[in-house]
Structure formats: C-alpha cells, structure tokens
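Take a minute with the sequence and fold tokens given here and flag any structure token that looks odd. Thanks in advance.
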Amino acid sequence: MDAGAGWHVAAGAHRVVEYLLSPEIVRLPLTPAHCPGVLIWREKMVPVTDLAALLGGDEREAQARRHAVVLAYQMAPGQPLRYGAVLVDGAPYEVYVADDMACALPEGSEVVRHVACSCFTHDDRVIPILDVARLFDRPLPWAAAQLDGDAEAVAPPVDGPPAGRDSAVGG
C-alpha cells in the first residue's frame, strides 16, 4: 500500500477488509496529526491513521490522500474482530512473498519498528509489514508524554524510506 511520503507498507491479505475510494473522515479535536479522526463504517467507528504523517510526511500531502484501507485484527485468538483504517494514495494489490524476500527492518526509524512486525524486499524496495494490532491498539511510546505537555518528549526521528529504495507494495 502506498502510504505516502515515499513509504509503502504491506499487511497480510487476511487483514485487508475493504478499500474505500472516498472515505468521509469525522475529524476529532486534540488528536495528533497521524490520527485525523474516525470513519463511520458499517455502523462502527473506525480509527484512521495517516502513516505518512506518522513517518514524517508533509501535512499538505496528507490532505491529498483520499483513499483508505480498512484492516481487521484481533487482540487474541477467539476475541471479536477490531478494525482500523489507514490512508493510502492508491489501491492495494497482492504480492506473494517467499522466505528469501525477508529482510531487516529499516535502521534509524523507531516508528517503523513500533508499527511493523517484519519486512521484505519487492522490486528492489524494502516493505515493512504492518502489525495491525500494534498500530491501532498500542500507544506510541512517546505519544502519552506529548499529550501531557512534556516538551522534552518528541517523536523519534524518521530518516525516510531506506536509502536507495523507496519502499512499495500495495498501491
């Protein structure tokens, strides 16, 4: 999925529920830039995450992202499904991944390490695979301090997509 800001990410095919061409996001006050609001989807409030904003992208670019992918996850086997949505620049597409495509997560990005469970290469690009439960249900370690007004707490630096590769899968 093309998350914007030069980043592309993947999610397990069993996680992708629906691609929304024109999602209507209900904006919420006092939320960080990477959490623009919620979608009312199938009579559920679904949190929306802008991965490009989370990974250090330009806010003007975020406003151009008009599509969303609804993802499903469980906190534990047997528990009900939960949903979250990520903003994307295009439709997701399926890529078959073999063991020899595995690679290390990009160095220097604590954000990617927090939201990704592993990584693979595809078309000479490094693709982080989202840990959807962690993305939507685990707070970012630095976010609570920022909301409490701790001036010392800042998001860890994001170096951008790995050098020489512009990370892509999904759209």
User: Anything to note?
Assistant: The domain at 2-147 is CATH 2.40.50.180 (OB fold (Dihydrolipoamide Acetyltransferase, E2P)). Confidence is low (pLDDT under 50) at residues 145-160, 162-171. The two ends are 4 Å apart (CA to CA).
